């Protein structure tokens, strides 16, 4: 097998590792490309391409994350990971860990860890790497990596998101939610939302966003029922889709361009949290991006005047 063939076979794994460390599709793709360049220039063929490439992409991702964290501290409004529709890497033996680690809630928890803790947690808990491989990847002793893993696991367990185990039930509830949204059905929305539900958006200062979000079933259901029927009247489309392994949707303008993504956290037969990403810089990998400001202006023009 040639180097190119080896690399392409491992590309899904490398991207999935990098994305979970970085929370960014574009940065993960850049990290994978940098890994290929280093592999191509390596004078000797490593004994294990998987171990070598995984170590390189981890080290590259850690370096990128350290600089990215400084930028995220200056980010306008809430910061959410770039939405991912499909994880390219599959492993039946790790399917539960892979799915759980991909959710917006889990990725936001990972943001609380140091870059080294995050990398060790991802390699150990998500992809089941052995500590010798992890130590080589992050440049620490096995003992130090075990300590990093314990600390990371403690932080993650303290805030670990819980979701409905039955995927079909979650999808059915999400379908009912988006139908009620289309109809502006306040009662239908209230029935599906938890009492303390939150709705928070990431616009990055580059798209319309809710200042600090909406909180509580009354506030969230009323806002949704008021804002979205006009959006659908001007030709807006909701395209239900798994987003980061959770029930969600892509919202599009009448021309099919992407406005934002939504993810729903569902527990106990109710929606606990809604997270939206509308920053155009985070949507380009999903297709042509809509002019969100123009859509908002048109939506407001067809909203009925308050009585």
UniProtKB/TrEMBL annotation:
GO cellular-component term (any): DNA-directed RNA polymerase complex
Superkingdom as given in the UniProt entry: Bacteria
InterPro entries: ECF_Sigma-70_Domain, NTF2-like_dom_sf, RNA_pol_sigma-70_dom, RNA_pol_sigma-70_ECF, RNA_pol_sigma70_r2, RNA_pol_sigma70_r4_t2, RNA_pol_sigma_r2, RNA_pol_sigma_r3/r4-like
Gene3D superfamilies: 1.10.1740.10, 3.10.450.50, Winged helix-like DNA-binding domain superfamily/Winged helix DNA-binding domain
Annotated transmembrane regions: none
Domain RNA polymerase sigma-70 region residues, every copy: 7-69
GO molecular function terms listed in the Swiss-Prot or TrEMBL record: DNA binding; sigma factor activity
GO biological process assignments: DNA-templated transcription initiation
Keywords, alphabetical: DNA-directed RNA polymerase, Sigma factor, Transcription, Transcription regulation
Domain RNA polymerase sigma factor 70 region 4 type: 105-156
Keyword Oxidoreductase appears in the UniProt entry: no
Subunit structure as annotated in this protein's UniProt entry: Interacts transiently with the RNA polymerase catalytic core formed by RpoA, RpoB, RpoC and RpoZ (2 alpha, 1 beta, 1 beta' and 1 omega subunit) to form the RNA polymerase holoenzyme that can initiate transcription.
Family label: Belongs to the sigma-70 factor family. ECF subfamily.
NCBIfam families on file: PRK09636.1 (NF007214), sigma70-ECF (TIGR02937), SigX4 (TIGR02957)
Name this polypeptide is given: DNA-directed RNA polymerase sigma-70 factor
Highest classification ranks of the organism: Bacteria, Bacillati, Actinomycetota, Actinomycetes, Kitasatosporales
